[in-house]
Amino acid sequence: MNDMNKTKYIFITGGVVSSLGKGIAASSIGALLEARGLNITMQKLDPYINVDPGTMNPFQHGEVFVTDDGAETDLDLGHYERFTSLSLTKKNNLTSGQVYDAVINNERKGTYLGKTVQVIPHITDEIKKRVIEASEGKDVAIIEIGGTVGDIESLPFLEAIRQFKLDKGKDNVLYVHLTLVPFIKAADELKTKPTQHSVKELRAIGIEPSIIICRADRVLPQDIREKIALFCNVEADAVITAKDEESIYDVPISLHLERLDSKIIEYLNIWAKSPDLNEWINISGKLKTLKNLVTIAVVGKYVNLKESYKSLNESLIHGGLANDVNVNIKYVNSEDFEGDNWRERLKELEGCSGLLVPGGFGSRGINGMLRAIHYARTNNIPYFGICLGMQLMTVEYARNVLGLKDANSYEFDEITPDPVISIMEEQKGIGNMGGTMRLGAYPCIIPKNTLAYNIYFKNNKKYAGDKKNCVKIQSDGNISISERHRHRFEFNNKYREIYKASGFVFSGISPDGNLIEICELKNHPWYIGCQFHPEFKSSPLYPHPLFKEFITASVKYLNGLLGLDAKKSKTRNNHKNKKRNIAPI
């Protein structure tokens, strides 16, 4: 509980270089404050002019995270949800595009009574209003400002947060600055000058940080802390080391040991209990002691930038934690399976115990994904298809099992004679690309006697989705779930019966019976696809059931292939030497 029921605000800025980990630092602060019993919220302020990242190429922006209410947001919101109990909304990601759009619309309506519309006060007032709205009723709001101090794009946001201390009072606002303290090998020294310049830049625009988090490859010695404190006008114990860790899930414990949460509580003059960090300690300890390894191939089109599949990557790790194994993610560009030597390249999958095809848009690399899917189906390798990965498993099945040789998705071939994946009726004729897909949380009914039912029923009350009330056992025994979507195309119901007659199972359907949400295959160890994105509801504390059971199936496949029981170990040569079926596609 905070003093006089006022929300406290923590603003996190970054300096020197990008990609220092502001999102992880902010998420870790959120985890620590929740562990102290505080009711928190988190928000990301992005300086780009796009209204949201939904139309950006993943190579430009990385993953687009989706909230329950259908907002396409920055990937850092995924970190916020994975590290805390929060289920965020469109209010929790604010962009310059949204701000300028609102201000211009207000000007057109005459809201400003003929005044000249300016960055100060109109843009900054709109930013402050949105921050306050998103923070209403919370003990602490943690707000991360995107970009790096000194960028021209972020200046309106920095000016707005500067005004917050004047508006809300110094006891209710805290500025935390994340910088880099590099180690120069040739000089055998840690260098504080980049941090000094970054803080100087921040102070020049009127923001004086009280806490400086220093990203470094080692713990900062006391003399370095004192030097930074002296030149940056902070207390020495407010200079916090954020050293490189083996896993992002080590960071909350690492920052707690640096007493960051205690310093925040002190500066904000807020009551909080001692933190209960047992769950994070257990996760951090488990990650350091896992010995067994399973390799999962992720065959996609954005694999050259791992940030494109951020939530997916983390969800696989969560599945590994739940199975007490390390997950080695092997990223494979699907275009590698499309050249003249594709048969030879396909052998790259022979060392993998599971194969996953994630979401994506556009026709590039599609034939390579189809070949990889065929490989998994015909060799009984556990397969997990997400969104596009589910759609393509139906295309591959149509071509190679149902005899529909030219079957395709309408997205890739508008004149295909067999559009087994077609555009949704309500999507036809849409001109604007941004924010017009099927977005956000939708319900799904899972009938009994299916693999999907067994997965969700087995893990009911053990994952983040249930924590957010998305799994319910119905009176008829079927399961109702809620999962997040981001797509424009659906399975074509005209083909439903021919699939069912051949052993293809539709194990997840919308409540009205019109939309296929999950499909699976009989007579295969583990072959399942979902139209939604389960990675958006997985966390290290509550792994998503589909990822947990996918890793379980992959471990079983590896053990069976190597002739292992639970207590034996052996080389993987048999795995590599076993003859494989190669796709005819």
Structural class: alpha/beta
Total domain modules: 2
- Summarize the amount of helix as a percent range: 25-40%
Low-pLDDT segments, ≥5 res: 564-578
Textual characterization of the structure:
The model is unreliable at about 565-580 (pLDDT under 50). The chain is an alpha/beta fold and about 575 residues long. The chain is globular and about 75 Å long. The protein contains 20 helices and 24 strands. The chain has two domains: about 5-285, P-loop containing nucleotide triphosphate hydrolases (Rossmann fold, 3-Layer(aba) Sandwich); about 290-425 and about 490-575, Rossmann fold. α5 crosses α6 and α12 crosses α19 (about 545-560). The strands form six sheets. The chain has a seven-stranded parallel beta sheet, with helices on both faces. A seven-stranded mixed beta sheet has the order 13-12-14-15-24-23-22, sandwiched between helices. A three-stranded mixed beta sheet has the order 16-17-21, covered by helices on one side.
SSE layout and pairing:
Blueprint (H helix, E strand, L loop, with lengths): L7 E7 L7 H14 L4 E7 L11 H4 L3 E2 L5 E2 L2 H8 L9 E3 H14 L9 H17 L4 E6 L9 H14 L4 E8 L2 E2 L4 E2 L2 H12 L6 E6 L5 H11 L6 E5 L7 H7 L2 H9 L9 H12 L3 E8 L9 H13 L3 E8 L8 H5 L7 E4 L8 H13 L4 E4 L1 H13 L7 E2 L9 E5 L14 E9 L4 H8 L5 H4 L3 E3 L5 E9 L1 E3 L4 H6 L2 E6 L6 E6 L5 E4 L14 H18 L10 H5 L8
Helix pairs in contact: 1-3, 1-9, 4-5, 5-6, 12-19, 14-15
